[in-house]
């Protein structure tokens, strides 16, 4: 077991550092457009990030470091890490009143691999010239907000937040000086995501980065996990059609038109729900722990995620929100910005690694 861990860490470092050494820090959109098979590294990024929460980190970190680093296992929930018991009211945690922070888990492997917290300018460089499409429910909207907070200066954020919090609406923005095009599409149901993917296919251009996620609405309105699984299978199928090479077309002048670049795809996992805090009776009844676990299981069983051979790298909101606990949420469902920021940096590091690998 330990041998496997070390080999994994070593391999991750080799793949990360050799191209970095060769390429330096210079990034361009072209480099970023490459869809590499960096499954194990990007998963390693995911597992090494936890919101920094002192009273939980000692519970979470040992269990992560004693298992292979590439397999984030978030269920069954260990009883001591369940949302209902992580932060008891009146707990004397020194950070209880200050806003939560996150940091990369301080393990030897994350330190040596140099996962980073990207600055706004670095993130802008990385995404320069890119089209970022984010679609889903309010979790996706909070993720968009985290991205914009990083890219835009604070004074530009006020009108953006006002726009983004008009409920159930789409949002479009172009960050002109970096040529970043950002679209948020309100898509509370999986069928909405499938429709968006079908509209993208077969081009003429695909988004460079695609972040999708939904499930809470289905859970509330249908409470049927196996049907959710079927919907996810349809999402997966539509996503796979973006990955299969678009056959080059023979143009009139006899030149083969270049094929469309597939997007980097990310899936926003379901947030941990704190049932007693949910704000309606209906939610408290239907969105209980058992149902959540069944839904979460469908995400794995539908094989939509890279870790089970699918197209999407998981941004594990469930794990991150559980790490932060009930002190990070007012309604048991939407979390403080730290959770989405941490997920954003997992995504950026994954993109960074993939872009470095294409040199
Ligand atoms: C973004 O890329 C364009 C060319 O693709 C370049 O001219 C511009 O300087 C870049 N901007 C930044 C901030 O890197
Ligand atoms: C999402 O799907 C539902 C159910 O299929 C549909 O009623 C709704 O109009 C769709 N919403 C959007 C924004 O496409
Ligand atoms: C959870 O909710 C489902 C659906 O409403 C219900 O059938 C089930 O009995 C509930 N389970 C618990 C443990 O409350």
Explained architecture:
- The chain is α/β, with parallel strands linked by helices and 359 residues long.
- The chain has two domains: 2-64, no CATH class; 73-358, SGNH hydrolase (Rossmann fold, 3-Layer(aba) Sandwich).
- 48% of the residues lie in helices and 11% in strands.
- It is built from 16 helices and eight strands.
- A hairpin with a 4-residue loop joins strand 4 and strand 5 (180-186).
- Helix 10 runs parallel beside helix 12.
- The chain is globular and about 65 Å long.
- One 2-acetamido-2-deoxy-beta-D-glucopyranose is lined by residues 223, 285-286, 288, 290-291.
Shape: globular
CATH superfamily of the largest domain: SGNH hydrolase
CATH level-1 class of the largest domain:
Alpha Beta
| Rg computed from alpha carbons, rounded to a whole number of angstroms | 20 Å
- Helix percentage range: 40-55%
Reported CATH architecture of the largest domain: 3-Layer(aba) Sandwich
Main location: membrane
Subcellular location: Membrane
Protein name: LOW QUALITY PROTEIN: uncharacterized protein LOC105046800
Organism: Elaeis guineensis var. tenera
Set down the secondary structure blueprint.
Blueprint: H1 2-23, H2 29-32, H3 39-47, E1 49-52, H4 54-65, H5 83-86, E2 101-104, H6 108-113, H7 120-127, E3 131-136, H8 138-151, H9 154-164, E4 171-175, E5 180-186, H10 190-200, E6 209-213, H11 216-221, H12 225-243, E7 264-268, H13 281-286, H14 289-301, E8 313-315, H15 317-324, H16 337-356
Parallel strand pairs: 3-5, 3-6, 6-7, 7-8
Antiparallel strand pairs: 1-2, 4-5
Helix pairs in contact: 3-16, 8-9, 8-16, 10-12, 12-14, 15-16
The structure holds 2-acetamido-2-deoxy-beta-D-glucopyranose (3 copies).
One 2-acetamido-2-deoxy-beta-D-glucopyranose (NAG) binds next to helix 7.
């Amino acid at each position: 077991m330990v041998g496997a861990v070390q080999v994994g860490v070593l391999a991750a470092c080799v793949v990360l550092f050799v191209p970095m050494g060769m390429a330096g820090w210079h990034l361009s959109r072209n480099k970023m457009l490459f869809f590499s098979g960096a499954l194990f590294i990007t998963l390693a990024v995911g597992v090494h990030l936890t919101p920094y929460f002192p009273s939980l980190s000692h519970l979470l970190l040992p269990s992560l470091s004693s298992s292979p680093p590439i397999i984030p296992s978030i269920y069954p929930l260990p009883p001591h890490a369940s949302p209902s018991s992580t932060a008891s009211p009146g707990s004397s945690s020194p950070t209880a009143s200050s806003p939560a922070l996150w940091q990369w888990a301080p393990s030897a492997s994350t330190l040596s691999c140099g996962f980073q917290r990207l600055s706004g300018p670095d993130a802008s460089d990385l995404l320069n010239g890119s089209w970022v499409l984010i679609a889903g429910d309010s979790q996706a909207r909070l993720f968009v907000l985290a991205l914009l907070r990083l890219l835009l200066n604070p004074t530009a954020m006020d009108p953006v937040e006002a726009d983004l919090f008009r409920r159930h609406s789409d949002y479009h923005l172009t960050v002109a000086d970096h040529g970043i095009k950002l679209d948020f599409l309100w898509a509370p149901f999986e069928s909405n995501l499938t429709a968006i993917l079908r509209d993208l296919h077969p081009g003429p251009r695909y988004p460079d980065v695609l972040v999708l996620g939904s499930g809470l609405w289905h859970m509330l309105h249908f409470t049927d996990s196996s049907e959710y699984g079927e919907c996810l299978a349809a999402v997966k199928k539509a996503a796979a059609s973006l990955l299969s090479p678009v056959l080059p077309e023979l143009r009139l002048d006899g030149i083969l038109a270049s094929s469309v670049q597939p997007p980097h795809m990310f899936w926003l996992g379901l947030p941990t729900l704190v049932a007693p805090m949910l704000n309606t009776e209906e939610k408290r009844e239907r969105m209980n722990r058992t149902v959540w676990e069944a839904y979460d299981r469908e995400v794995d069983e539908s094989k939509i995620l890279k870790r089970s051979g699918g197209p999407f790298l998981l941004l594990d909101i469930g794990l991150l929100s559980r790490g932060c606990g009930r002190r990070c949420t007012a309604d048991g469902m939407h979390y403080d910005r730290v959770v989405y920021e941490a997920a954003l940096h997992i995504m950026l590091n994954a993109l960074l690694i993939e872009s470095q690998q294409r040199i």
